[in-house]
Amino acid sequence: LHLLSRRQRQMCIRDRIRGLKKINFRTLLDIQPVKEMVIVTFLAVLELMKVGEIKVSQEHNFAEIYLDSCE
Description:
The protein is of the alpha+beta class and about 70 residues long. The protein contains two helices and three strands.
């Protein structure tokens, strides 16, 4: 099992969603993701939000999480 660092995962997410809107968080994960990858991916998303590269939306608690590129 090879896990990416948060910074590496940020770069992967940034490249994947560049110029796109309303990307489901789950599409960033494998079909059966390991817990560590979910955590690293979530932390990478939080960091991308913090620096203003993406916007995140969720209609209500426990609903799907969507990402929008700010580019």
